Structure formats: structure tokens, C-alpha cells
Amino acid sequence: MKKNIPHNNVSEDYKSLLDIYINRIQEFTDNNLISIFLTGSFARGEATENSDLDVWCIFNELIQAL
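The chain above was modelled as a monomer; its predicted structure follows.
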């Protein structure tokens, strides 16, 4: 999966958090995951210490959550 994660001036290592999130989503969904998008202030490189991570997941098929 291609990764394009912009630089932000926050103390938290959000890149490693995103890696963990992406790996867990891939494990849970097998090959159903098509793409993951980071949006909002982190995607624009404008994140602050109070910013949240806005993540969108695109799946091939809808799945039932456990």
C-alpha cells in the first residue's frame, strides 16, 4: 500500500500510530481493504497537539462488525 503521510509539528509519533491502525485493519478485513485515506489537519500538515486523526477506509465489500 502506498503511503503519503505529511510532516506535522506535533510531539506524538502519529506515523507509527497510523501504521498500527493500518496493519490491524488489514488483518481484520483480509483482502477486503482497498484504500485508507488520511484527511483533515494531519493530511494538510496543519495538525496541532489537540488535532484528531481523520481516517477514511474504502472496502471492496461491506462487512459485519464483530
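The beta strands are 33-39, 54-59.
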